[in-house]
Design a protein that fits this description.
Porin; 1 helix; 268 residues; twelve-stranded antiparallel β-barrel; mainly beta; globular
Length: 268
Amino acid sequence: MNDFLHPGKRLPLVAALLSALLLVVWGFGPGSHHAYAESGAESLFYAPPPASDQNNGFSGHAELGYTALSGNTNTETLLAKGRLSWYTEQWTHTFRMETKSVRDSGNTSAEQYLVGQRERYNLSASNYLFELARWEKERFSGYDNQFTTIVGYGRQLLDTEHQQFSIEGGPGYRFDDFEGGGSKHNAVGYGAFDYDFQLTDTATFTQQASVEAASDNITARSYTAISVALNSSLSLRVSHELKSNSNPPDEAESHTDRTTAASIVYNF
């Protein structure tokens, strides 16, 4: 944390944040594209709203991000994400993939791959059932790979022109394959929330968080982003992701991983 406060590392992030805030203030004029529905935020829920006449049965986005920090050390972060959703009556089907790589002074300090799938069944306008499955592989985490599947219930608590707020939760199962050998089967309890606030006609703030509690540890995830629409297809985004494990394997290099990135998003 102290290294992050070094001025040499802070300047690129500050510049990116200021650029995003200027875009929010300018708003690209009164005829700009509405960013709230098209921001393509990478939801921990893995699923956008149900089908409507506006999305023609499917939607998705592709995101590419890069951040370079310089100072006492040189750090580069490269991430790529993709999501595809399609709709059949009350069902929303979603598939997503992502990869992330971090290099510190020329050496790889983080590398992550994730594949996720989700089903959502709408009981009503505000209530839904869901199932999700996620496979992830992350170097330096102490795990060779992890597989998680969860089923549960969700509810839309707030749905207005400018704000949306949802919560969901349920039981699940996680398989841990350890880097040092061996594996473990875990029962988990899952809870999450998703909050979106439309700042302007083109800018959206997103805050999401989830907790997965097992007998040996608790995994918490957080995603914070500001997305600004350039037009009907392209958006700029500044985001910060956090993943924390309360009791990681001995081989893990840290309890918490943080990723800050500036990226461009193509929505379709």
